[in-house]
Sequence to fold (74 residues):
Amino acid sequence: EKGDRLYIKDDLGAVLMFEVREIRMYDEDDLTTEVFASSDGLAHLNLITCEGIWDRVKRSYSQRLVVLTDRVYE
Fold:
């Protein structure tokens, strides 16, 4: 949910903190390229997973759940 925090440990053992800014839902055919771009120069971690109804023929779910986060420095 918005405001939740995620903690990631990097390969050097440092823990990085990210806070959920927004959660979006996309249909499987929606254009989602903005999820992969940022022009603010800050660090972001965007998580993408499947959601919706499973289509056995396509072997895919009908929607994508995207969690957009921003790096938090404390």
User: Anything to note?
Assistant: The two ends are 20 Å apart (CA to CA). The mean pLDDT is 92.
